[in-house]
Specification:
The chain contains nine helices and eight strands. By secondary structure, the protein is α/β, with parallel strands linked by helices. It folds into two domains: 3-43 and 113-246, HAD superfamily/HAD-like (Rossmann fold), CATH 3.40.50.1000; 45-107.
């Protein structure tokens, strides 16, 4: 897939009280698209943060609620290693982790909220016969359940969870396995990510990546490694020249 940059620079408002200069890109349609999931396709990252903070409060450790940013984009094993560093010695890591995850799953038992325009984008990609995969730190069975409840599972040709690889993001393993699962050379795929770890993982796999900020705002790192930064999936599609307006406006 060729990425051809012009010399024109635009200022693009990301809704973060500042604008970032971007080179306008003329981008060919990739052979496949690989999505992150939490905070990118489904609006679960905010639920995860809120339930983490609630769990901290329940353990009389409210001062740790602001440490959630360390957990974003990490798999369960990595998160537990972080707990070992930040939790007081009297808190059992396994129990804290289970209580948090149980509370999180309870919030999503019947409904998983979509990120804006996620279904519309998946519908359009399906309409032009582009294979789609998910590469997520979430365990595969849980990811598939979330995608099913959100109405997106039907669009995915593969779902690669963190339990399928030895090394999670920012290592490239998830993206390499996802590209292989849909028979697409990494250099011909396009990834969508919301986290720094995910952007690093896709970049390390040789996959061009679009950054859609969620809890992690755009910064110098993302401007260096992402081919495009956009406020949401619809704006990214517009910059890529993908005509989502032809899809059902209700499919958001």
């Amino acid at each position: 897939m060729a990425f051809i940059a012009t010399e024109e620079i635009i200022s693009y408002d990301h809704g973060l009280s500042q604008s970032y200069p971007l080179t306008v890109l003329v981008i060919m349609i990739p052979q496949a698209v690989i999505f992150d999931m939490d905070g990118l396709l489904i609006d679960t990252e905010k639920v995860s943060m809120a339930t983490f903070q609630d769990t901290c409060h329940s353990y009389q450790a409210a001062h740790l609620a602001g440490q959630y940013h360390q957990l974003i984009g990490r798999n369960q094993t990595e998160q537990q290693a972080i707990f070992a560093d930040i939790l007081p010695d009297h808190i059992d890591i396994q129990r804290f982790d289970k209580d948090w995850r149980d509370l999180f799953l309870d919030q999503l038992r019947y409904h998983v909220p979509l990120k804006p325009h996620a279904r519309m984008l998946c519908q359009w990609l399906k309409s032009v016969s582009l294979p789609m995969a998910v590469a997520t730190s979430t365990q595969t069975a849980k990811a598939e359940a979330f995608l099913e409840r959100a109405g997106l599972y039907e669009f995915m040709d593969a779902v690669i969870g963190g339990d399928q690889v030895q090394h999670g993001k920012p290592a490239p393993d998830l993206y390499i396995k996802a590209a292989d699962a849909i028979a697409c050379p990494p250099g011909h795929a396009l990834a969508f990510e919301d986290t720094y770890q995910g952007i690093e993982a896709a970049h390390a796999a040789g996959i061009a990546v679009v950054h859609i900020p969620d809890l992690m705002p755009a910064n110098d790192f993302t401007r260096q490694h992402a081919v495009l930064i956009a406020d949401n999936l619809s704006m990214a599609a517009e910059q890529l020249g993908w005509p989502l307006e032809n899809m059902d406006a209700k499919a958001t």
